[in-house]
Amino acid sequence: MRSHLNRGWKIGVIVWILVMACNIPMAATPVATEPGGLSPDELAATAVELTLAAMLGGEATDTLAPPPPEVTFTPGATVTATATATNTFTATPCVPITTANSVDVNVRSGPGTVYDIVGGLPSGSSARVYGQNDARTWWYIEFPASSGKYAWVSASVTTGSCIPGNLQYVAAPPTPTASPTTTAIVALLPDLYVSEYAWLPIPPHMGVPFNVRVGVYNQGNAPAGAFIVKWWMTTSAPAAACSWNVPSLVAHGGKILQCSYTPGGWNNAYPSKVIVDSGHNVDESNEANNTASAPLQVAP
After folding, report:
1. Which residue among 11, 56, 84, 194 is least packed, with the fewest CB closer than 10 Å?
2. Where are the beta strands (DSSP E) in 133-225?
3. Is 15 contained in some domain?
4. Do residues 264 and 206 make contact, with C-beta atoms less than 8 angstroms apart?
5. 121 in a domain, yes or no?
């Protein structure tokens, strides 16, 4: 019974020693140890372990970590601290670009539609921006396809990104000189045609004279020289029934020609006709409108 009490008393003492060892205050500054020695904390832990082993009748096992290697400080020596290298991340610089919107856009030699088209920027493609015009409405882009390696694209049909506020201004090239308008040279020629063809009375009668009226007009832009007008009561006749010599006719001017003719027979529809400039003496702008035809009825 006494051995049990002694054993319990010993265990209580050991617990008290452990509690006291744990409550030992830490020094504000590290305590130097002799070379190869132990710190106070390590000595206290060792003492507790040895005491516990002796009381319990067992052998203590050294579980302490091996002492740190001896460090020798040389007075006046310079201690060099070695810093551990860390990874440094560098941000990728933002490059000013502009991208064509949903349609292909024209690339021009200057900032405006008056300049020549030097190529195109397909929809969705981008070009690097190097400048802008004064109004910030056109971008000055890198464009190898142009002769100067740079060109212009409208900001209204592209979308810029990473455009800095201090982007340089680029002077616009001289405005292209408009090509002189070529004026078509129109030949000044007359154009004769039959403007009127009629007869009275209607119908004329066989053996009775009737009057033939022919109007001639020059609708060209030049006067006509001398020409001949002929009328046939029937195209089967060997010669014209009436003929007129016209000495001249001004541009946009006309003349009324008349003659009287007595038919020697009758027919319900003679194929009559009139020809202006029948001898082709006048060089006209239109030679296809010089003839007029009409059926002529002569009663018995």
Report:
1. 84
2. 138-142, 150-154, 158-161, 192-200, 210-218
3. yes
4. yes
5. yes
Asked whether residue 277 falls in the same domain as residue 219, the answer is yes
CATH code, domain with 146: 2.30.30.40
CA atoms of 136 and 273, how far apart (whole Å)? 75
> How far apart, in whole angstroms, are the C-alpha atoms of residue 47 and residue 41?
10
Q: What is the pLDDT of residues 59-114, one digit of tens each?
A: 444 444 455 555 454 555 554 545 454 555 556 678 999 999 978 899 999 999 99
| pTM (two decimals) | 0.41
Helix, strand, coil percentages in the chain from 3-state DSSP, rounded to 5: 15, 30, 55
Distance of CA 212 to the CA centre of its chain: 71
Cβ contact 150:115 at 8 Å: no
Please state the domain count of the chain. 3
- Structural domain including 237 reads 192-298
Chain-centroid distance of CA 32 in Å reads 79
Rounded to the nearest angstrom, the gap between the alpha carbon of residue 254 and the centroid of all alpha carbons in its chain is 59
